[in-house]
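Technical note accompanying the year-one report. For the benefit of new consortium partners, we illustrate the data format agreed upon in the data management plan: each record pairs a sequence with a C-alpha cell string. No post-processing was applied to the example shown here.
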Amino acid sequence: MPPLSSLREAFTCALLGLRDGVSLRIIAFSLGLWLGTCVLWSAIIFFAWAQVKTAAAFVAAWSLLGIFRIFPNWLPASAQEKIAGVPLADGANALLGSVAFGTITSIVLILLIGIAAYATVRIAVEFWLMPIIREVAEKHYPPFPPRAPYRLLYSVTNVAKTGALAVLLGLPFLFIPVANVVLLFVLFGYLNVRTLVNEALDGLASRDEQRVLIRRIRVRMVLLGTLLGGAPAIPILGLMTPAWIGAATCHLFLRELARLRAESIAG
C-alpha cells in the first residue's frame, strides 16, 4: 500500500477505534482500571521513593550523557574529568549543575511514573478488556469463519519476542542524544499495537495468516502507534487511550483480514 494510503488507513482506524473505545461499558471498565493502577503506584512510590528517584536520575543521566560514557573523547577534557570514575548521575549533576540536572530528573521521574501507570493499565486491557473491545469492533464486519484459538505458549512467546525487540532496539536508541526521544516514541508506539495483535485475531485467523497480516501492514502499525502515541496527554480522553488503541488495532487487522480472505477467494 502506498505511504499516503497507509497513513489514511491508519487515521481511519484511529477514528474507528475512538468510536468503539468510548462506549459506556468500556469507559466504566477503563476508569476502574485507572483507579486500581493509581492506588498500586501510589503505594509503590510511597514505600520505595528513594529507589524510584534513583532510577529516574539514572535514566536522565543516560539519556543525556550515556553515549559519552562509551566515547568519552567526544567531550572536552574538563568535562571528561567530571564524569570519569563516578556514577553517571553524579557526573551529570557535576557537569550540568544541580539545578539543571535536578529539573531534568524531575521531568524524567514524572514521565517514568506516567509510563509505568499507563503500562499497567495497558497490560490489564490486553488480558481483560480486549475480548469486550473486539466484540464491539466485530459487529461492523461480516462474520469471519472461526479458527482454532491460539495456545497459551504462543501468547507467551509473542510477549517474549516483543520484549526482546524493545530491548534490542530501545537500548541502542538511548545512546543517541535528542533523537532518542523520537525514536523511542515511534518504537513503543509500534509495540503498543504489536502486543495487541494476538487478542485482535485470536480465534479468527491462523498463525500463518497472522504472520502474513503483520508483514502486510507493518508500516500501518507504526503509523497507527505513532498517531495514538500522544493520546494519553489529552485531558480526560487520555484515560481511554488503552481501550482506544485496542479498538483501533482490532479495526486495522479485521479490515486487512477481510481483504486477505477476499483475495484468497478471488485467487
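Partners are asked to follow this layout when depositing records. Residues 98-138 form the longest helix (41 residues).
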